Fold this sequence. Notes:
Layout: H1 10-13, E1 17-21, H2 30-40, E2 46-50, E3 56-57, E4 60-61, E5 75-78, H3 85-95, E6 99-102, H4 112-127, E7 131-133, E8 139-142, E9 147-148, E10 163-167, H5 170-182, E11 187-192, H6 201-210, E12 216-221, H7 227-237, E13 243-247, H8 252-262, H9 269-279, E14 282-284, H10 287-297, E15 308-312, H11 315-328, H12 337-347, E16 361-362, H13 371-382, E17 388-393, H14 400-413, E18 417-421, H15 428-436, H16 445-462
Parallel strand pairs: 1-2, 1-5, 5-6, 6-7, 10-11, 10-12, 12-13, 13-14, 15-16, 15-17, 17-18
Antiparallel strand pairs: 3-4, 8-9, 8-11
Amino acid sequence: MTRFTAPDLKHLFEPRSVAIVGASKDEWKSGGMFINSMIKDSYAGVIYPINRRESEIMGLKCFSDLSSIPGEVDLAVLAIPAPAIPSAMEDCARKRVKFAVVHAVGFSEMGAEGKEAEKRMVAIAREGGVRVIGPNCMGIFTSRGRVNTVVPYARIPLDPGGVGFVGQSGWVSEIMLRLGSARGLRFSGIISIGNQSDLTLEDLIGYWGNDPDTKVITAYVEGLKNPERFMRLAREICPHKPVIVWKGGSSEMGARSAASHTGSMAGSYRVFQAMCGQTGIIPAYGMEDIIDLAVAFSCPVLPPGRDIGLLIEAGGGAVASSDACAVEGLKIRQFPEDLQRKLSEYLKDKVPPSNNRKNPVDLVWAPIGGAAKVYIDCLEMIMPHVDTCLVITYAFLNDAWFRRKLVELRDRLQKPIVLVPANPPDQLDGLILAAMDGIPTYVMPDNAIRCIGAMVRRAEHLK
């Protein structure tokens, strides 16, 4: 694959040593919370607490400053207020720390004085070769490195994942991590980028474009430091990997909020929409949408066309799905008569009578004991005639055999199968497991079909 111009961030996402500047014995202060989180998540490297007043924190030897640490430091997490940052950054520069995360607020988002303070901080960092995340951010989550400063109070699954996320909002980054994990997404990394004083959103997107383990790139954007570079990267990366972007500041009030939030000028939303059309960026329109789309594009295949099959267990689901397909321009074509006969003969005496075998196929109520096999057998008949299939099913997502058969069928035919459980509260574990298997799964048919529409448009863009 083409290599994109981007900084080497390996030791940001896989730090061999982490210094916590402002370390605390209090687990509810950030300097204590970060250490406690790394211990609980079995961080494999060396943790260096920095606190002049303590000799030991949570069983770890304390150091008075960075210069007194005997080894190299890959990552320094500065859990201190803004006035203390310049001195701490000077220590980072002297120690030749590779990366520093600055959580503190009070920089360019606060106006002219804050902008000057931010410039001074970056100038100090650059003298020592330190790359900076932030300020005004929540920092980093990395499954490979087992470091979590985004939601350190929560235990998040640390399975290696294929979704990278960078966000200009701590809140969005937190929600992406927590709700995304609960939907079955597993992350190669999440960065709350804040003011982008040094490392930018474009740097992260370029890095993930090069990273073979990252399959889907997602971002929440308020303003761009370098729109030309962003567009160039999008043009280069989108043919190889899906890039999903939720653009904040689409309204006048939203743009004002972005300026006060991260010091970013939101820019024209119409220009952003045009950029998506030109580059192949997949636009998201909110928090739920960006998670839904990340689930969709975690599927390893795209629909080869617009023909969709509907295998439904409820008449209302068929109506709702048909309406949503019309909005997305998906084609619900009537099945050939020989396929209709084949389905009718197979389903006779297996499900209640129904005259709908044309598409949608209404199974009404499949027998609980053998229903999973009935669905798989119907999919075997239907899938060669469609480009993708939406399945509304009663209660099989928790069934490992059912999920395995779906994966085998998807991989053999190279067509996605998308699921909606008829009773989602009974299938929460299955929702997660199916998404982890690359089977997009949604609570409602309209969400599922909206994402199928996005998958179809990406497939058409790539042709």
